[in-house]
Amino acid sequence: MSSYDPRPSGCTPFEEELINAMNDFAHSTDSPAFDTAGMVHRTRRRRATLIAGFAAALIAAGGGTALASISGSASQTTPAATTVDHAKATFLLGGLTKEPIAVDLTGQDLATAKGQFEKAQLKLGTIVKVVSPGCKSATVVELTPHSPKIVVNGDTVDVKLCAG
């Protein structure tokens, strides 16, 4: 018995016609063609692009955070009197970005300076107290080497503090 043969009794002519129409429709339509290789390729390319975008955003956010933490405390302090030379108390940290990062320690206490050196992975050299007009006692007035020289991870920086 095929789908086109008349049905045994029990089916109304309407039901027979409906079944025949459904069979004709099912056998006449083309099945959809899927380009599975293309779909997989697009999915992998989109996934790779998305992962690369997230990685770039995380690197940018992490790098920005690291740079802000190195130079952040220097910008939060009040500068010393105008007689202190800021260039002598500023070091240029190289090796993190294309351009070196200026970190100004003018007027900072020794503990803050040590923290900045640790963040920048620099070694603290000799600490000397000097008499300098217009500075607050026990604050940084000069670093060696200072800007325009560039220091990198592992370098030693000497500190001169105000004697008061």
Automatic annotation (TrEMBL):
Highest taxon of the lineage: Bacteria
The entry's keywords: Membrane, Transmembrane, Transmembrane helix
InterPro entries: PASTA_dom
Transmembrane helix among keywords: yes
Transmembrane segments: 48-70
Protein name from the UniProt record: PASTA domain-containing protein
Phylogenetic classification of the source organism: Bacteria, Bacillati, Actinomycetota, Actinomycetes, Kitasatosporales
